[in-house]
UniProtKB/TrEMBL annotation:
Its cofactor is Mg(2+). This is Phosphopantetheine adenylyltransferase. Reversibly transfers an adenylyl group from ATP to 4'-phosphopantetheine, yielding dephospho-CoA (dPCoA) and pyrophosphate. Residues 5-133 form the Cytidyltransferase-like domain. Homohexamer. It is found in: Cytoplasm. Belongs to the bacterial CoaD family.
């Protein structure tokens, strides 16, 4: 059985993330989305809120499981009995950063491979930080996130529809 882990903070999950999730899920028997706690960041949404949003927007993908984790990715991958890590790439700068982590992880866990999926060009500009900035200013985020996530962002920022 091919098990892969797609780790990220998903704060919030974007349409770009969902594109990677759908494509990765089609390549493996089981895809575990690892919602990580990054001590270097202060998330807008709690870990449970991020897990819940992912469960809502990925609920129709049968081989996807969403789990929260802390600590090292290599430990989480081993815990999940996975051998593949999926990472999305938007630009060359993403590749440089991700390559460093992939190589380090491979040294620590020689059975772990990293697969890079190039982001669909329609999402190449998109990041969670862009979404948060637009949402915080009551901007139109309908092209960035699913409607469920847009509602959660509006609630978080106490925004109203601009209609």
């Amino acid at each position: 059985m091919r098990i892969a882990v797609y780790p990220g903070s998903f704060d919030p999950v974007t349409n770009g993330h969902i594109d990677i999730i759908k494509r990765a899920a089609a390549m493996v028997d089981r895809l575990i989305i690892g919602v990580l706690h990054n001590s270097a960041k202060t998330p807008l949404f709690s870990a449970q809120e991020r897990v819940n949003m992912l469960k809502e927007v990925c609920g129709e993908i049968p081989n996807v499981e969403i789990r929260y984790f802390e600590g090292l990715l290599v430990d989480f991958v081993v815990e999940c009995n996975a051998a593949i890590v999926v990472r999305g790439l938007r630009a060359v700068t993403d590749f440089e950063y991700e390559l460093q982590w992939a190589q380090s992880n491979r040294i620590v866990c020689p059975t772990m491979d990293t697969v890079f999926l190039v982001t669909n060009v329609q999402y190449s500009y998109l990041s969670s930080s862009v979404v948060r900035e637009y949402a915080s200013q009551n901007g139109d985020i309908s092209a960035f996130v699913p409607p469920y996530v847009a509602e959660k962002l509006k609630e978080k920022y106490n925004c109203v529809d601009r209609k």
